[in-house]
Amino acid sequence: MPALVLLGAQWGDEGKGKATDLLGGSVDYVVRYQGGNNAGHTVVVGDQKYALHLLPSGILSPGCTPVIGNGVVVDPSVLFSELSGLNERGVDTSKLLISGNAHIITPYNVTVDKVTERFLGKRKIGTTGRGIGPTYADKINRVGIRVQDLYDESILTQKVEAALDAKNQMLTKLYNRRAIATGQVVEELLGYADKLAPYVTDTVLVLNQALEQDKVVLFEGGQGTLLDIDHGTYPFVTSSNPTAGGACTGSGVGPTKISRVIGILKAYTTRVGAGPFPTELFDEDGEALRRIGGERGVTTGRDRRCGWFDAVIARYATRVNGLTDFFLTKLDVLTGWEQIPVCVAYEIDGKRVEELPYSQSDFHHAKPVYEMLPGWSEDITGAKSFSDLPKNAQAYVKALEEMSGAPISAIGVGPGRDETIEINSFL
Ligand code: GDP
Ligand code: IMO
Ligand code: MG
Q1: How does the cofactor attach, per the note (predicted)?
Q2: 223 C-alpha to center of ligand 2: Å?
C-alpha cells in the first residue's frame, strides 16, 4: 500500500489537522516531515477539541503510529508539555517515534528568533517566535544540534560551544543582550535525554520497512505551499519545505513510494504574519470571514488576515506539488453571501496574468480579477453527500475544481470529523 501526502495548498491553516485526523483511523503511520511547533492544527473529535503544534494529528487515532521525521525541528519542552497535556486527557502517546536526525530547537534559537524580528522593525516577517528559522539556519550552517547529540555529552558540549561562539558575539555586540553560557544550555538539553530516549529511533528504516509490508503511511504537512522557503512568497515564508518534495527529504522515503498528494484548500483564503496577499479584504466581508470562520491563530492567537478564494494560487499549488486531489474545507463559512467573488487571474501593470508571477515585485502589486459566483443561504453543515448541497454551493465547488486543476475529493462543511462530504476515497 502506498504513501500519501497531505499538505496546505495556501498560506497554512487550511484544516490539515482535521483532514489528517479523518484519515488517521485508516492509516498505519502519520508523519510530520518539516516545521515544528510553529504549526497549530485543530482537531475536533465529538465534543473534544485538541490543538496540536508539534505532534502529528495521527496521535489522536489509537491504531496509528505518529512519527516526527528527520526534517522536523523539535523543541523538547514543547514536546513534553504537549504529550502530558494529551496524557491528562486520556490519549495514549506511547507509540510516538522521533527521528534521531531531527534537529533540536535550543533556547538560544528561540532568543535569536525574537531579537532578530524585533531588530527588523517594520520589515519583520511576523514569525511565530518559536525559533524555527534560526534552528533551520543552524542546520544548514552545520552547527545544528540533533536529537542523537543528546546521547553524547562531549559531542553535545562541543557543538553547543560552536553554535554559541558566533551567536554570543551577535547577541552582545549587535543586539545588546547578555551572552548565553554553554554549560547552562548543555545541562538543560541533557535533562531531556532520558525522557526522549524511548521515542528516538531510525525512522527512515521504520517507514521504509512499513511500506515494504504494505502499510499505509500518511505525511502531514505543516504550514502551506505559499509559505515554502523555495516556492512560497519569499522572504515572507517559513524556513522549511511544506511542499510535496519536503515529504521525501524530511522522512527519507523516496518519491516513487508516493501515490497521492492531497492539497488542503480553504474555500476562501487566510494568511498570518507579513507578506503579499492579493485577495486580502479590509472591509466588513473580511471581518465576517474572520468571525464566522473563527480565523484566529492556534499558535500565536493573532487574527488571521482574510480574503476571497484565489484560483491562481490553487493552480500554482497543483503545479508545484503535483497534486492529485484537493480537500476543500470550510465551505460552510461562505453560507449567507448573495454573491461570492473568486479571483480567477491578476492584473499586473494593466495586463491580465493567469499564473502566479515569479517576480516578487509583480506579485506585490498584483490586483485580483474577480468573477462573481452566486451564493446560497441554506445551512449546509448537515450535508453528507455532494447532492445534499444547494445547487449554488455545488456550482461553487465545481467552478473551483475547474479553475484549480485537480479534482476536489472531499469537502469540509464543519470542524467535526463527521462534518465532511467524501466524493472520491483517498485510500
Ligand atoms: P491547520 O493548521 O491546517 O491544521 O488548520 P487550523 O487548525 O490552524 O485552522 C483550521 C480551523 O478550521 C480549525 O479551527 C478547524 O477546526 C476548522 N475547520 C477545519 N475544517 C473545517 C470546515 O470544513 N468547516 C469549519 N467551519 N471549520 C473547519
Ligand atoms: P499551520 O501548520 C499559518 C507563518 C508565520 C510567519 C511565517 C514564518 O498551522 O498551517 P516561522 O515562525 O515559521 O518562522 O514564521 O510563517 N506561519 C504560519 N502561518 N499557519 C502555520 O502553520 C504557520 N507556521 C508559520 O505567521 O508569517
Ligand atoms: Mg494552523
Answers
A1: Binds 1 Mg(2+) ion per subunit.
A2: 6
Structure pTM? Answer: 0.97
Give the orientation angle of helix 107-120 with respect to helix 153-169, to 10 degrees.
Answer: 20
- Do 183 and 285 belong together in one domain? no
Residue 209 lies in a domain: yes
- Mark whether 275 and 243 lie in a shared domain: no
Ligand 2 neighbours, Cβ below 6 Å, are 8, 12-13, 38-41, 125-128, 130, 132-133, 222-224, 227, 238-239, 272-273
**pLDDT tens-digit map of 98-119:** 999 999 999 999 999 999 999 9
Q: What single letter denotes the amino acid at residue 107?
A: P
The closest of 387, 350, 391, 382 to 369, measured between CA atoms, is 350
| Residue 130 and residue 117 share a domain | yes
Single residue among 214, 233, 262 that ends a domain in this structure:
262
329 lines ligand 1 (CB under 6 A): yes
Q: Are residues 314 and 418 in the same domain?
A: yes
Q: Do 241 and 184 sit in the same domain of this protein?
A: no
Q: Place 299 in a pLDDT band, splitting at 50, 70 and 90.
A: confident
Cis ω for the linkage preceding 235 (within 30 of 0):
yes
